[in-house]
Amino acid sequence: MADDAVLLSLIIALPFVGSLLAALLPANARNAEAWLAGLITVGILIIAAILWPKVAEPAVVRAQFEWLPEYGLNFVLRLDGFAWLFVLMIAGIGLLVVLYARYYMSPEDPVPRFFSFLLAFMGAMLGVVLSGNLIQIVLFWELTSLFSFLLIAYWHHSQSARDGARIALTVTAAGGLSLLAGMLLLGHIVGSYDLDVVLASGQKIVAHPLYLAALILVALGALTKSAQFPFHFWLPRAMAAPTPVSAYLHSATMVKAGVFLLARLWPAMAGHEYWFWVLAPVGVATLVIGAFLALFQQDLKGLLAYSTISHLGLITLLLGLGSPLAAVAAIFHIMNHATFKASLFMAAGIIDHEAGTRDVRRLGGLYRAMPITATLAMVAAASMAGVPLLNGFLSKEMFFAETIEYHVDTALDHLLPYIATVAGMFSVGYSLRLIHQVFFGPPATDLPHKPHDPVIWMLLPVGLLVLICLLVGIVPAQTVGGVLAVAVESVLRGQTPSYSLAVWHGFTPALLMSLVATAGGIVIYLSMLRYLSGNIEGAPLLRELKGKRLFERAIVFLSWRWAKGLEQVVSTARLQPQMRLLIGVTIMLALWSFYIRPVSLAPGSVQGADLEFMLVWLVGAACALGAAYQAKYHRLAAVILTGGTGLAVCLTFAWFSAPDLALTQLLVEVVTTVLLLLGLRWLPKRIEGISSETILSARLRRFRDLTIAVGGGAGLALLSYLVMTWPLTGSISSNFLERAYTEGGGRNVVNVLLVDFRGFDTLGEIAVLGVVAITVYALLRRFRPARDSVGLPEQKKFQNLYDADIQGSGKDPISAHYLLVPGLIMRLLFPVIAMMAVFLFMRGHDLPGGGFVAGLTFAIAFILQYMAGGARWVEARLRILPVRWIGVGLLAAALTGAGAWLFGRPFLTTAFAYVEVPVLGKLPLASALLFDFGVVALVLGATVLVLIALAHQSLRVYRAAAAARTTSTTGGRN
Amino acid sequence: MELIVSLAIGILAGSGIWLLLRPRTFQVIIGLSLLSYAVNLFIFGMGRLRVGAPPVLDPAAAGDISRYADPLPQALVLTAIVISFAMTALFLVVLLASRGLTRSDHVDGREGGS
Amino acid sequence: MNWHDHLVIAPIILPLIAGATMLLFDGRDRTVAAALNLVSTFGLLAIAITLVMGSAGPDPAAAVKVYRLGDWPAQFGIVLVVDRLSSMMLLLTAILACAALIFSLARWHSSGSYFHPLFQFLLMGLNGAFLTGDLFNLFVFFEVLLAASYGLALHGSGHARVRAGLHYIAVNLVAALVFLVGVSMVYGAAGTLNMADLAARIGSLPARERALLETGTSILGVAFLVKAAAWPLGFWLPGTYAAASAPVAALFSVMTKVGIYAILRIGFLLAGPEAAAGSAQFGDVWLLAAGAATILFAMVGMLASQDLAKLASFSVVVSSGTMLAVLGTNDVAIIGPALYYLVSSTLAIGAFFLLIELIERGRAPTDDILAVTLEAYGMEDEEEPGEDGEAGVAVPAILAVLGAAFIISALLLSGLPPLSGFVAKFAILAGALGRNDPSTLTGVAPAAWVLLVLLLLSGFVTLIAMVRAGIRSFWAVIEREVPRVRVIELAPVAVLLLLCLTLTLQAGPAMRFMQTTASGLHGSAAYIQGVLGPTAASTGGKP
């Protein structure tokens, strides 16, 4: 069996490998490409031949490879009679198409792409028919969609090729997804995705409540692929592809995949009348509409396209009937249609190639110009029309015979014979038209080229196919009998009925129907002749029904306008709604979790209120509300008020025995305020008064925001109240208090937490500070102030004016002693504050203070210098490089932590000892101190960097102003 | 006491949120700092409130949680303060940059619905 | 403890030291920084691989490695925890980082100051968030990665970036405050911050504390959902990602996964068997709904998006929406496939972000408009098929390569066969449908139906959008100049896509790894044991 496995895998592998090779060949290697593709198809045919005896036993050749066994998805190759038949068609017709394409494609066509895609498509198609696993079928199914997309769009410089390809892909891929859903349901029903298991458990499937759902989903997949009404519209559009592609996709492969799947799943799913109800009506509709529309196509390929649709409808109908005999007919017709349709497409391509047009009206009398082509095409067309002694006739007889049989007792079932006959008439009609209008009648005069028969190599494929049509038509049993029998048996598995492939069954009703159809067809054609040679595009009645147009409109409508509109509804690009949602959602979720787990709002222990504290917060709250109110118009006031609130917070920390927090809060407050003040200068002026207060909508918006704000505030207040009034039991904090001194070596527990217990947090925190600092720096390097804020501030202008006035009047200008005394003091203060910082740093471990506080203090010393001397003065004297300090700080902290590794301890393990230092007294010299130094360095660096970056901007103005002045003076001079 | 603090938290948070929902970048930044005050107080409160506890450890009475203020939330608040300080600085600069590039101090970079 | 134990913290310390060292050199000279960055990033890759190897064992308890910082007992020091999930995320991050870094060296890293340090700090933040076992420490690392991401999102400055950045920063600052409220409530209710300790305590908490705790966790959830860009909290994402420079966006594609990761981790810890039955279903319905809404929103966005960058951003949203929806089904059987999906989609999106930049490079901004009009025109015309041009146009090699890459990523993102995107979606659906739900007539759980529809639909929409965009950028404009693409730009894309291919071929083993990961998550006993139990003491290693 192993060698069989190898052979099977080769069937799949060869085309894909070939496709890769083909892609790598140079653009003009037409012959090499053709040889490559040809040899591969021949190889596949040989393998198929080798495997035939085993298949004919009949046995199933299987090869299985593990892929995703846990989920029942294995790579299973499975060759039975039916699959073999398809391999034969795919490879055989593939070979002919390759030969044909070699001469069809023009020398300047980039053929590598063509052959590479063609081979890949062939591989995908073979994959579909050889798959032994439902999901694997879907996999190759979608691949056929993908590669057919690429093939149809081969001439992608033409709009119609692009559209055709896109539509084909959209429709078939959508079908593929629904097929996937169907297969998943089947898997759920059966409990396995293995094809053999599924085929064996027909009863189980049909009985399951999900049967109908699965059936519809699978059918959607198959019907879209086989271009069944109402999904047929993609197929005519796909005619934009090069003719070899059309000949391949629309005779033997792509469209046949759908009916292949239906036949494949026939034993598993056909055992219920739903099967009939889902498939038969679609088949009938497609059969009739396709045939009808085909008659009125002016484009030769269009005509063939619609006839393909119609014939596929016929096959679908046969499969939908659900009777074994019908299935036989279906399989037989699959073969026959492939042969004559492929040859007709090729013939059409030849005519297009030689005559330069495919418009039936412009063509005519080509028989004289190209007799061989004409003869071949006529035979093929006759077979398509179902003329006796041709293969088309046989399967159509079977079809007619089957329609008379009784399946499901319904009106549709009783009407079938008549409908079938009418459809037959039309197919005779369009076949006749093809023959008559193209090859007979007055020779066409205004053709782009002078038509003549092409090279023999281009005719050969057509000839071979036509020959098959004849042979099968005359001696069916001897030619295809065996193959068909095996194929049928492998599909029907034991239900195979007795059937005969004889040409002559005597005077049966079916024969009568054929005669009527033929006669009617002739009549229809003659009666329609004038209408057809007119300039009217498309069929009467149905001319307005353009599936493709509707579809494209739908797609465009959905994907552009509708989606764009909807996007406005479900999303927003504005910040305020996002903020609203964020806070709203938070409140909602909090409320919800309270709802599912109600909690008594009764407070526990409460400490007595304190009047002074209340006063503090009266002020604090007033400041907060004031800030909220003033932030729009009086920014300065808002900043100051915010500072006030900050002080209240700071006092609160102090009040509740958290000196470190109070200290830090205070310093951060100072620095933040300074930063904001530096920023204010770049914001636009805002004029009080006129604003949207009056507009109602604005009022409503504000009211909504107010509710959200109040809700959020109330919520947070409530939560905090609930928690604070309830004693915290079992907190881990007691451990800190226990170990802080004994193991952490410090009496200021908070500081020990920061540098030891949770030192890692601190490490992260200073990293954040550093990152932000360099981000700010990088951003401000590219800062360009808005034009309206480049000019000097008002006060400065006044001052300059005054200076100008008093010039020469003996008095000094104001700028001469700007902040003279305070400036001096500030400069003198610098070392003092620096000392203070050091002090705070050293004592941090035992008393309130620590690295962060120290760093900020130091930074404040610098801020003062800016205030005193201005940006220029400081930058001229600044000796430290803040960015480096940041780096040093981070490194110091990180390396201190890593030092513990040397002692085989985890990161940040600390060691400490106490040492006596003169002035400062007894100091804890913990390794944490080194870590804390890193913190100082970083905080100092980061803060100063941000300050410099911001303060430095003020210099831009002078530069800008100076630039303006020079230009103006020069302008004045000349 | 608890009531006052929670009311304070409520008011700060409320006015902060109100400002966050306003259209001007400057209002938003003020709102952010007000809200972060509220959150810092909130975190602090999660360790419960304690008046007049010794600021630093007395080695004699180490480990007696009932005599000290809960240190852990304080540590968290310190980290939170630092981070929100950094973020305020960053947001300030970004709003300046946006003001510079878009010539508008509207949060969406262009005037529009409030 | 030997060096191998310290490996756990290396993913955080290495980028920290690398980034800090870069700051010692002048920001304008990039050669040193680039070199350091390369060393550190590839070092991270090596470390991540070692960690994954270490945690790949079958026994979940052995897979949990704990690192107790400062050598304090787990409850009140900070611990780092490596298990399968975290090590996997580390590896994913490292891979994307390598790709993005290599790509950026071609040009992007020089379009602004401090690209390399910020890059390193972002990695530090990501790794920290994946490793830490402490809620507040998680907050800190969120801030680290956010701060760095702010810097990187603004890298290169410019009108669009700053405007998108402003929103991004504002929203995430508020989210950070929300996070803080949540964390502190958890502490106020349960008295601990250590995740494992929390999981161990939750069962025994009295009713009031329990209620407050869950309020806290659901507030935390909001912060995570913002990070994961769940609807309606994720509107900041498309703008920001689309505006960000290509390598940065590629790296960001793993950033939304941090939110997902946090939800996974904490959700499972608090809802694991150790927790009382009460919180088993906690928030699941909400997650499913949020996931569904997110996917639908992303679908609409994709259809409406004009340019490729927007498309990619929305596919980020799709992927996190899918993850949320799967988590919301509360079906353990499909967590494994979901993780597989997470990896595959993240890699694919990363590759796609890089690819876009190369595709767009060769095109004039007017092309899009031209193409759109062409399309509109094509709507109206009724030209005979195949009438024009009997000979096709040859495609330059480089365009062909880009086109192939585009098709592959389209297949990956839309979950079409045969690549890992398909495998992932199939496995999820097969898992969801495979579990027979006796309560329903059909044996299919309602949640499974929801997933089926969402996954297939989103796949289809992605396909439509991708095909449209692809046709427009490769075919509609014939006379487009061929972009100049350097190898170091093409290589990362190729590698990422190849990884997806390997995932496809090795689906079996990969899926098994994911499944064991998921089971390890679900039986969070192993995690809690690992952190608090006796095993912790031994790995803590006092000599």
Task: Provide the fold topology.
The complex is a heterotrimer of chains A (974), B (114) and C (543).
Chain A: H1 2-24, H2 30-56, E1 61-68, E2 73-79, H3 81-104, H4 111-130, H5 134-152, H6 159-190, H7 195-200, H8 202-207, H9 211-225, H10 234-237, H11 243-249, H12 254-269, H13 273-295, H14 300-321, H15 324-355, H16 366-369, H17 371-385, H18 391-404, H19 411-439, H20 456-474, H21 476-479, H22 481-492, H23 509-533, H24 547-570, H25 575-596, H26 611-630, H27 635-655, H28 659-680, H29 696-724, H30 733-742, H31 749-757, H32 759-781, H33 794-805, H34 820-843, H35 851-877, H36 882-902, E3 914-917, E4 921-924, H37 927-973
Antiparallel strand pairs in A: 1-2, 3-4
Helix pairs in contact in A: 1-2, 1-4, 2-3, 2-4, 3-4, 3-11, 3-15, 3-20, 3-22, 4-5, 5-6, 6-9, 9-12, 9-13, 11-15, 12-14, 13-14, 13-19, 14-15, 15-17, 15-18, 15-20, 15-22, 17-19, 17-20, 18-19, 18-20, 18-23, 19-23, 25-29, 26-27, 27-28, 28-35, 28-37, 30-31, 31-32, 32-36, 32-37, 34-35, 35-37, ...
Chain B: H1 2-20, H2 25-46, H3 71-102
Helix pairs in contact in B: 1-2, 2-3
Chain C: H1 3-6, H2 10-23, H3 30-55, H4 60-63, E1 65-68, E2 79-82, H5 84-106, H6 115-131, H7 135-153, H8 159-190, H9 195-202, H10 207-227, H11 236-243, H12 246-252, H13 256-271, H14 284-304, H15 308-328, H16 335-361, H17 366-380, H18 397-414, H19 420-434, H20 446-476, H21 487-505, H22 507-522, H23 525-532, H24 534-540
Helix pairs in contact in C: 2-3, 2-6, 3-5, 3-6, 5-6, 5-12, 5-16, 5-21, 6-7, 7-8, 8-10, 8-11, 9-13, 9-23, 10-13, 11-15, 12-16, 13-15, 14-15, 14-20, 15-16, 15-20, 16-18, 16-19, 16-21, 16-22, 18-20, 18-21, 19-20, 23-24
Could you spell the SSE succession of chain B in H and E letters?
A: HHH
Distance between the termini of chain B: 39 Å
Main sheet: strands, sense, barrel of chain A: 2 strands, antiparallel
The whole-number mean of residue pLDDT values of chain B reads: 87
**Class computed from helices, strands and strand pairing of chain A:** mainly alpha
Specify the number of helices of chain A.
Answer: 37
